[in-house]
Amino acid sequence: MTSPRTLGSSDLQVFPLALGGNVFGWTADEDQSFAVLDAYVAAGGNFIDTADSYSAWAEGNEGGESEAVIGKWLASRSHRADIVVATKVGAHPEHRGLSAGTIKGAAEASLRRLGTDHIDLYYTHFDDETVPVEEIITALDQLVKDGKVRHIAASNISPERLRASLDFSERAGLARYVALQPHYNLVSRDTYEGGLQDTAADAGLAAVPYFALASGFLTGKYRPGTTVESARSAKAGSHLESEQGRRVLAALDRVAGERNAEIATVALAWLAAQPTVAAPIASARTVEQVPALVAVADLRLTDDELALLTEASA
Predict the structure, then answer these.
(1) Tens of pLDDT along 173-187?
(2) Whole-angstrom Cα distance, residue 153 to residue 123?
(3) How far apart are CA 309 and CA 249, in angstroms?
(4) Which of 238, 218, 294 is nearest to 47 (CA)?
(5) Deepest of 149, 156, 259, 314, by most Cβ within 10 A of its Cβ?
(6) Of 26, 162, 179, 156, nearest to 91 (Cα)?
(7) Coil, helix or strand for 235?
(8) What counts of helices (H) and strands (E) characterise the chain?
(9) Phi, psi (5° rounding) for residue 299?
């Protein structure tokens, strides 16, 4: 039985892989999304990550599609209390930025779409440096006081603004960030390692990395001479052009072969073993993609395997 991980200083106990909701209502329709969610929960998963802006970028969508799908799924199943729902504020076309009024309005809209009376983990999606951290934290704290949000977190924020936010929470005795969602994976380490990771470690924050599989590149399906039908293939395929990308694939192939594991599982296991990381985020468009993701819960890489991958990705 997989041991859940505690998210930072919170009371949230999460499965060591968060299921990304970016594809729901975009490349996965409602039926596919429900099937993926069911498969994830059946495997022991309980941590679902979305955002109010998913998937405003898709033609014909306006944002909120993912939350609406998750809300319908929650309503049709009986385990809302067992699920940790994380969503984000700041990038919805009608609720851009992090002013106090925007945060309040966006949270109400997210609660409606999710069909729930509380959000377990509420992230600022992108920092808004035009708004003082005092205003952002005070608005988030009010949501916690009102029982609409259980815990707060940040994504896409500088070490300086993160530290200032934490310091203000301490000084004012207000809700404090418990988690951080950085861009972090085997082919993108400088997006987290360094100042941001140090700040998170010092503050006892849990990291929940996004792009954990580099838009699919770290599943191993992108190879020289192959074409992949995916909305994200251009981004993922670009890693093949770098020396680092090719080295990482070779190291992943080796470890996956020796451990009889999927390449994606090994890439996620490396990430899950890094300091501060509680649960990488990965999304699945089909039920067939779920097993390789949830298998990270049971794959512990050896020190030698971790060192091989770390060296390849340097």
Answers:
(1) 999 999 999 999 999
(2) 4
(3) 9
(4) 294
(5) 149
(6) 156
(7) helix
(8) 11, 12
(9) -105, 110
Active site residues: 54
Q: Report the distance separating Cα 50 and Cα 33, nearest Å.
A: 13
Q: How far apart are CA 155 and CA 124, in angstroms?
A: 6
Task: Give the pLDDT band of residue 1 (cuts 50, 70, 90).
Answer: low
User: Taking a C-beta distance cutoff of 8 angstroms, is the pair 246, 218 a contact?
Assistant: no
Distance (Å, whole) CA 117 – CA 108:
9
Q: Three-state SS string across 134-174, please? A: HHHHHHHHHHHHCCCEEEEEEECCCHHHHHHHHHHHHHHCC
Q: Are 256 and 269 in contact (CB under 8 A)?
A: no
CA-atom Rg of the chain in angstroms: 19
> For residues 159 and 129, is the Cβ–Cβ distance under 8 A?
no
- What tokens does 105 get? 């309005």
Report yes or no: 20 and 51 within 8 Å, Cβ to Cβ.
no
Q: CA-to-CA distance for 288 and 69, rounded, in angstroms?
A: 20
Give the DSSP H or E segment for 19: strand 18-20
pLDDT at 276: 98
CA distance 210 to 181: 6
Cis check: omega of the bond before 55, within 30 degrees of 0: yes
